[in-house]
Design a protein that fits this description.
The structure is a homodimer. By secondary structure, the first copy, chain A, is of the alpha/beta class. In chain A, 46% of the residues lie in helices and 11% in strands. The first copy, chain A, has 9 helices and 7 strands; from the N terminus they run H-E-H-E-H-E-E-H-E-H-E-H-E-H-H-H. The first copy, chain A, has a 4-stranded parallel sheet, with helices on one face. The first copy, chain A, has a two-stranded parallel sheet with strand order 1-2. Chains A and B meet through helix 1, strand 4, helix 4, helix 6 and strand 7 of A and helix 1, strand 4, helix 4, helix 6 and strand 7 of B. Strand 4 of chain A pairs antiparallel with strand 7 of chain B, so a sheet runs across the interface.
Chain lengths: 228, 228
């Protein structure tokens, strides 16, 4: 189906893949539904058309087949992540790798799977497991991209601003503490150290910027002016 | 758009999620395009409808917002995998977590993001980064599912058959070796040990089953009968 080819191409390019090979596409090629669904992906991806899977993968060294269900085939079965790791490893050793996706309705035939070195199965909710072709391509492309991606797993986005220095942070906390003291916040000397710790923790785990600490100084000023 | 709601619901249920909350859906609810696109997902998912994001997330403890691009907002930014890890950890401590997705065209407003504890950005090809809503939901749902999934990363699928025992494997290798010797395969005594090792390696890394070893015995029989 053209729509599936378009969705697959778009998902590939989202994650930096461009070598798309089509085996005997039902509606021929080029295909207008595919191009529409591709949202511009075919500006960068020029599919190669083959008459058989054998020809489509003949120059590759390591080929994995995606299947929705277990087959009566004796093959290693990989998760998408493990498949991506293996492909990444092979590629770093200059091997050409491929992932084969089957027809929307019937998937791959056993004959086709027997040409592949392994199988990829995407673990899903067993009660609702139908992924369409575009979704399967998306998940595999995503995992392949992740192999080369060094985006930090968590980063504090502070835009143009800069984290506050400990010195300026302490000035703020000391001022807050003084003003709280002056306004009768600490009911008992006994509990004061614990409350001071708690307040410092609220702000210190915040990874505040310079600008935010200036804003918080403004907050204190507003309250203390008001109270006078 | 109804289609997006349907694709999102389908992607959620594929990976075992069912708590879908819609804020002020453009075309109201229920929506026929959503139900068609959901391919049955709405048999299991009954969306709750809210008039504002504030109300939609009011009972949650940890909420992350998905955004396509960096904002001028000082927030931790997580990869999908790190977001899933954090959510999984919070859930195990009985916290209710949510992921907020924006409108197809404009995404979330800064006002909406400021209600969230962090941001999720999906790393993509910078030259072709547009993921649609259904794709973003799919990738996050996939990562959340993976947190609870214990599918082995690689498994040898041997169906009903059983791995061959070392004893039977050795019988096969010894028979192969004898027949090769008898047919003049080993040209020099000098190289014989290396070639024997190589042949053993070809078969031993194969994780052969009992049945496959019987098949290979048949192969030897066929050749040796033929040669006579």
């Amino acid at each position: 189906m053209g729509e599936n080819i378009g969705a697959a191409a778009r998902a590939m390019l989202n994650f930096g893949l461009s070598d798309l090979r089509l085996v005997n596409p039902r509606d021929g090629w080029p295909n207008q539904s595919a191009i529409t669904m591709g949202s511009g992906a075919f500006d960068k991806i020029e599919p190669q058309i083959f008459d058989t899977l054998e020809h489509a993968i003949s120059d590759l060294h390591f080929v994995l087949a995606t299947t929705a269900r277990a087959r009566d085939m004796i093959k290693p079965v990989y998760t998408p992540k493990a498949a991506a790791e293996n492909i990444h490893t092979q590629q770093r050793r200059d091997q050409k790798c491929g992932i084969v996706f089957g027809r929307e309705r019937n998937g791959l035939e056993n004959q086709e799977i027997s040409r592949c070195q392994g199988i990829i199965q995407i673990p899903t909710n067993p009660d609702f497991s139908s992924l369409n072709l575009g979704q399967s391509v998306l998940l595999l492309a995503y995992e392949l991209f992740a192999q080369n991606d060094d985006t930090p797993s968590r980063i504090m986005d502070q835009g143009d601003s800069f984290p506050v220095s400990q010195e300026k942070f302490n000035e703020f906390i000391d001022r807050l503490d003084d003003e709280l003291d002056r306004h009768g916040f600490y009911k008992t000397e006994n509990l004061k150290p614990t409350m001071q710790l708690n307040i410092r923790n609220i702000f210190s785990r915040n990874e505040l910027t310079d600008q935010e600490v200036r804003t918080l100084h403004g907050v204190i000023s507003a309250f203390t002016k008001h109270k006078k």
